[in-house]
């Protein structure tokens, strides 16, 4: 527990974890064993979020990452991401470079020999 003296959780943190589940409030409600309407009230800040809700979601995420690391041996690196004003993640994918073909490599070798000779 990060902040045991706090009585209520952060609605922004709850929205962050729901966004990590693909904005599926129904799945998060099922995971927390709460009614979907209750989770919607927490997200819309109509009711206060209990302190344990962000903690449970954080621990579930950590367990999932650890399980993934144990099965595959490395963390899933997705690269950098940009969060837009609509809170949607846009992944920046590295530019894929095509490896040079064998004929291109040979031509480069001949060109350097011709320049020096």
Kindly describe this structure.
- Residues 105-117 have a biased composition (Basic and acidic residues).
- Residues 92-117 are annotated as: Disordered.
- This protein is mainly alpha-helical and 117 residues long.
- The protein has one domain (11-94).
- Helices cover 53% and strands 5% of the residues.
- The chain has helices at 11-20, 25-32, 36-43, 52-72, 102-116; strands spanning 81-83, 89-91.
- A hairpin with a 5-residue loop joins strand 1 (81-83) and strand 2 (89-91).
- Helix 2 packs across helix 3 (36-43).
- The radius of gyration is 24 Å and the shape is elongated.
- 8% of the residues are buried.
Task: Output the keywords.
117 residues, mainly alpha, two-stranded antiparallel sheet, 5 helices, elongated
Question: Outline of this structure?
Answer:
The protein has 117 residues and is mainly alpha-helical. The chain has five helices and two strands; from the N terminus they run H-H-H-H-E-E-H. It is elongated.
């Amino acid at each position: 527990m990060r902040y045991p003296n706090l009585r209520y959780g952060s609605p922004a943190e709850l929205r962050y974890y729901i966004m990590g589940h693909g904005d599926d409030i129904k799945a998060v409600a099922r995971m927390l064993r709460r009614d979907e309407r209750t989770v919607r009230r927490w997200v819309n800040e109509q009711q206060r979020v209990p302190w344990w809700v962000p903690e449970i979601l954080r621990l579930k995420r950590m367990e999932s990452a650890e399980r993934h690391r144990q099965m595959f041996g490395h963390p899933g690196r997705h690269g950098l991401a940009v969060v837009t004003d609509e809170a949607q993640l846009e992944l920046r994918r590295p530019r894929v470079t095509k490896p040079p073909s064998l004929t291109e490599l040979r031509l480069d070798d001949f060109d350097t020999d011709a320049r020096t000779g």
